[in-house]
Amino acid sequence: MDFQDQPITTARSIPWKPVAIAAGGLLVAVLVVILAARLLRGDEATRSLLQEAEELATPALVADFAADHGSLEACELLESEQARDNCAWGVARSLSDASLCGALTDPAAAMRCADGIVEALAIANLDVSACEAIQDGEREARCIALLSEPVTSENCLERATEACDDIRLYEEAVATLDALLCREIVEEGRRESCEEAVEDRLDVLTEDDDEDGLTNEEEARYGTDPQSPDTDDDGYLDGAEIDAGYNPNGPGRL
Predict the structure, then answer these.
(1) Is the same domain home to 250 and 237?
(2) 110 DSSP assignment
(3) How confident is the model at residue 218, as a pLDDT?
(4) What whole-number distance in Å separates Cα of residue 63 and Cα of residue 57?
(5) List of the chain residues with pLDDT < 50
(6) Cα first-last separation, the chain
(7) In sequence order, what DSSP letters do the residues of 136-198 get, joined into one string?
(8) Would residue 107 count as lying in a domain?
(9) Distance CA 229, CA 232 (A)
(10) Strand partners of residue 253
(11) 210 partner at 20 to 30 Å CA-CA among 46, 63, 165, 197?
(12) Dihedral sign (CA 112, 114, 115, 121)
């Protein structure tokens, strides 16, 4: 029998959802044991139980639990000050509540925590006035500068991630004058604005104020007078001269 005759076994996938639920339940149980043991600590058996439970509840697990449940109280179970601060920072960020950053013992870290949440909310809500609550001057200036600029395909990932596809369609539609692309835009207001922008752009491109056969945009390109149908006053319309290959601004060919 060669290698191709070997039986093929299909690997079984791990049921991650039940595993995650079980792990979460275990952590909750561990935390309950820790809290109960701390309240009842006194005899040797209780102290032993407390020690075993705290060994199971690693800082990473406690921090994840605290952030998922918005519980600053869970952070107090951690031994080191840095671990408690990191845990509290995670809770504040998960709840988007800058006031919770006050639970951090390091003032500098507390400020960075609060500033980060304020900036994130300002960007999410496209609210430049919210940047003024940022305590760090340089960060406040960056926030204001970012939100003062129009939202484009280049900065939408920072300011309006969910609208990036719509913004790219908008820009492409205006650049190519293809109003059909506007119909693919999801947000109704932006879709209508796109159609109007394409229409306005088409109007600009076809405007010919002096009716000489050259649009105003072409007049600017050739340097002719958009208010005079015969810029060089030679008896020929500017558009006719361009079509024949002659210079509309004077004698000679283009």
Answers:
(1) yes
(2) H
(3) 81
(4) 10
(5) 1-24, 26, 37, 39-42, 45-47, 49-53
(6) 84
(7) SHHHHHHHHHHHHSPP-TTTHHHH-GGGHHHHHHHHHHHHHT-GGGGGG-SSHHHHHHHHHHH
(8) no
(9) 9
(10) 246
(11) 197
(12) positive
Report the b/e string of 150-177 with b at 16+ CB within 10 A: ebeeeebeebeeebbebbebbbebbeee
Give the per-residue pLDDT at 6.
Answer: 39
Kindly state whether residue 21 falls inside one of the protein's structural domains: no
2, 29, 148, 182, 189 from 171: Cα distances, Å? 61, 54, 19, 9, 15
Taking the C-alpha atoms of residue 41 and residue 58, their distance in angstroms, rounded to an integer, is 20
Q: What is the pLDDT of residue 63?
A: 81
CA distances (Å), origin 40, targets 28, 75, 145, 221:
18, 20, 55, 87
- Does residue 223 share a domain with residue 183? no
One domain for residues 214 and 179: no
What residues contact residue 163 under an 8 Å CB cut-off, 6+ apart? 151, 156, 187, 190
Domain shared by 219 and 235, yes or no: yes
Tokens read off for 17: 């959802």
Query: Is residue 181 located within the same domain as residue 195?
Result: yes
Please, where are the H alpha helices in 13-58? Answer: 16-40, 44-56
d(CA 122, CA 167): 20
219 occurs within a structural domain: yes
Using alpha carbons, list the distances in angstroms from residue 121 to 113, 146, 192: 13, 13, 27
Which range of residues forms the domain containing residue 221?
A: 208-254
| pLDDT at residue number 132 | 93
Number of structural domains the chain divides into: 2
Q: Does 7 reside within a domain? A: no
Per-residue pLDDT, 92: 94
pLDDT at 134: 95
**So what's the pLDDT on residue 226?**
83
Verify that 169 and 195 share a domain, yes or no.
yes
pTM above 0.70, yes or no: no
